[in-house]
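Thread: Newbie trying to understand structure tokens

Hi all, I'm a second-year student working on a class project, and my supervisor (Dr. K.) asked me to get a predicted structure for one chain before our next meeting. I've only ever worked with sequences, so writing a 3D structure as a token string is new to me. If someone could post the tokens and maybe explain what I'm looking at, I'd be very grateful. Here's the chain:
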Amino acid sequence: MKGKIMIRGSCCCKAVQFELTNEPSFVGTCHCSRCRKVGASTIAFVKKEDLRWIAGKDCVQVFAPTTPYIYARCFCKVCGTSLGEILSTEDSFPIAANALDGDIALTNQSHEFVCEKPSWYTICDDAPQNDGHPAEANT
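---
Reply by user tm_fold:
Sure, no problem. This is what the structure looks like when written as tokens:
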């Protein structure tokens, strides 16, 4: 498609490969203990129509949440790289920013669940800080 940008993404072992035809709409960092544990604290919201699979969709493993959590997390089942919610069927969903191979024009726009941030981590940017989810994150 002429005029469209291509942002490549992959897991560490390159079994999973994808590209985005547009920039993510939002980048934010979650400081909750669950996001930290799965290695996907910084997320980039993408639109379903902007994600194109190159290889390895069948290599994506889903970690189903237990109550009170509601969001499934995806990983490469070969190397374990966190991929966010890359198999989501929603119109817009978060993928792990660490899975993007190139730079994007956005910088971190928000911090969420800062009340769960560990004491050893210092927030070093001026992005707004929220105790929960920011309202504009899923636009």
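A couple of things are worth pointing out once you decode it. The two ends are 24 Å apart (CA to CA). The longest helix spans residues 33-38. Feel free to ask follow-ups in this thread.
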